[in-house]
């Protein structure tokens, strides 16, 4: 009797002590995301996460650069738990700025391939996109296309469109070419491709695809999910654009097509660190992974495992296995090379 009383007294006492003295993080029921992504589908996923865990998700949306500046300015008092960016280069930039902390989790280790996370676990990918060649089905046979390198040859004179080099997707693509072939070859490539353009770089990836459909150029460099967004658009003009173009995965006989990611890192000062890790586990887990191809036309982390009809229609492909943190490490080289190549 006495000992039973002792046990239950201890339990009550320590229970009370836990409630009173445990840090706020351990009992908090919210998580705050600073996100560069702008998809409604993400909000639907966050609502599912809340339903499952009871953890409320607050989202602040802005450009990756603006969010990084905000985290730096807010310092220790930042409410941000996770920074989400749509490019490995930007996540590396955030890590270099010292605003991220490692997220150690066996689930994340198991769910995210090694080349799609920071070697110190400061960020993890949750979606994949390939930067490919979009061609006119009227004027180009897929057999005429081979690699990014081939775009530098004279046969493509006046036939290529691509967006500005200020865009991080192009910087990451060039960073992958620097990693594969060195600075000299990458400079020659950027100079020749710029020389082969049908018009000076302007507009978004979607605008490049529209230019190919409109006959301004024959080949565009663009991310795969933009084809999906056009194909699934409520605007019939967008769907007509998607019908005129084909998706070609370059470098299949070599290193594979250049891929990039969307991913998130836990902010160093995160007030709700455990919840942040739980959310990253959810985004990289089976339910979210199955949803991305259907909603945003992005690839899941297991690229070949996608069940999406549209993504499957583009064919299977070999992806470059380059550790994606190298895209960030070679970013400043890529920016310098684009300036030298006069690719504005
Ligand atoms: Fe994008």
CATH superfamily of the largest domain: Periplasmic binding protein-like II
Shape: globular
**From the helix content, strand content and strand pairing, which structural class follows?**
alpha/beta
Report the radius of gyration as a whole number of Å: 23 Å
DSSP strand (E) fraction?
15-25%
Question: DSSP helix count?
Answer: 16
Euclidean distance between termini CA atoms? 82 Å
Largest sheet: 9 strands, mixed
Order of helices and strands: HHEHEHEHEHEEHHHEHHEEHHHHH
Helix content: 40-55%
Kindly report the average pLDDT value: 93
Q: How many domains is the backbone divided into?
A: 2
Question: What small ligands are held by the chains?
Answer: fe (ii) ion
CATH class of the largest domain: Alpha Beta
> Ranges with pLDDT <50 over ≥5 residues?
1-20
| CATH architectural type of the largest domain | 3-Layer(aba) Sandwich
What fold name stands as the CATH topology of the largest domain? D-Maltodextrin-Binding Protein, domain 2
Work out the number of β strands: 9
